[in-house]
Design goal:
single chain; 186 residues; mainly alpha; 76% helix; globular; transmembrane; Vesicle_transpt_SFT2
Length: 186
């Protein structure tokens, strides 16, 4: 009986701390805090309006930078991938961070590595990092260009697939459209 009461008490305390956190009330750190909790403490408690402004600003800035990278697409084709890849990647990173304003870093990391987003997140982040690394490794320019273009396309597709996971039934609808298109083509 005592064990059950302790479990209820512990769960109640955790629930109360979560509710306080959602309302912006400071709570004392618990024994079971981890690195993600510590990262979350770096972000101040923001009002709803500040969160929306932060989200909109980061999202807009990220995509402006990403689209600006296409000014350097000719440089990429001519063998100078650094400006294009760096702007494209920085823009994507800023856009990805924009959602942290809505839910906070802790929940963002949990959401990114949730069961239904885990593969898309890993593919997205690994292609993003690999494209930056490949851009600085000296080797045959044609091979580098081919690898970078493939990485950037996969990164773009993984980003779309990741984003669709937040829209109810969106992935299912896309799969159905592709299946119908493939069935008609055969």
């Amino acid at each position: 009986m005592s064990g059950t009461l302790d479990a209820i008490k512990s769960k109640s305390k955790k629930g109360l701390n979560k509710a306080k956190g959602a309302l912006g009330i400071q709570t004392a750190p618990s024994e079971d805090s981890n690195v993600v909790d510590e990262i979350a403490e770096f972000c101040p408690k923001l009002s709803y309006q500040q969160r929306m402004i932060g989200f909109g600003s980061c999202f807009f800035l990220g995509y402006v930078i990403t689209f600006m990278s296409f000014n350097f697409f000719i440089d990429l084709i001519e063998g100078n991938p650094v400006p294009f890849v760096m702007l494209y990647s920085i823009g994507n990173i800023i856009s990805l961070f924009s959602s942290m304003f809505l839910c906070g870093p802790k929940k963002q990391f949990k959401n990114m590595f949730d069961k239904k987003r885990k593969i898309a997140t890993i593919v997205y982040l690994s292609t993003l990092a690999t494209s930056i690394i490949i851009c600085f490794i000296p080797f045959n320019q044609q091979s580098k260009l081919g690898i970078l273009v493939i990485l950037l396309i996969v990164q773009f597709l993984a980003s779309i697939w990741y984003s669709l996971s937040y829209i109810p039934f969106a992935r299912r609808a896309v799969k159905k459209c592709f299946k119908n298109t493939m069935d008609e083509g055969v």
